[in-house]
């Protein structure tokens, strides 16, 4: 099954003057019983944070939290003792596990753009942990699917998480195409940052998304230079 969701159908939230966020799933004040999650992917927020602003300390538990910085940089501090800066092209993963708290601020004089994804972990009761890598995903490895975060130990030079899922990034030039082989027991989600692609024959533009189940192959072709995220997920809760 192929489900196309247009950019206009995302939920827009602006709870403060400094934050503009698009929720791809039910989150905070947005509730849609039919849009709670896609497999273990529980949250996907497309956030824009104004200069010298951010999220004060707040708690999390039993979630794998992945942050991809697209533009600008974010200053992170948590109750595990981590004090870090995540710049564009870097990836951060927090295992909230039994509980932690953190803050996220844009200390720069320019806007910050990031994606934050939350995954339901494959195991509860884990000790909180943290990982961060500079993968330079915004400009490198053109016309490929580059793994950024995964629960598959066979992949190298990635950030690991406690979810049987993998997050890929692609910078696909106009006229190029790629295939992602999957299985009926897996699901695939694509979200476009910029450009135009055809996914299994359906056109997606900036901020459009596709959610696919029961597929064997996902075929992507760019008709305009594109950047997009592809997420491979288990279809059954027992495999999260």
Automatic annotation (TrEMBL):
Residue span, Pirin N-terminal domain: 15-118
Cofactor(s) the protein requires to work: Fe cation
Cofactor note: Binds 1 Fe cation per subunit.
InterPro entries for the chain: Pirin (IPR012093), Pirin_N_dom (IPR003829), Quercetinase_C (IPR041602), RmlC-like_jellyroll (IPR014710), RmlC_Cupin_sf (IPR011051)
Residue ranges annotated for the Quercetin 2,3-dioxygenase C-terminal cupin domain, each copy included: 156-233
Keywords linked to the UniProt accession: Iron, Metal-binding
Gene3D superfamilies per UniProt: Jelly Rolls
Binding site for Fe cation: 58, 60, 102, 104
One of the record's GO molecular function terms: metal ion binding
Domain of life the protein comes from: Bacteria
Family designation: Belongs to the pirin family.
Cited PANTHER family: QUERCETIN 2,3-DIOXYGENASE
Protein name (record): Pirin
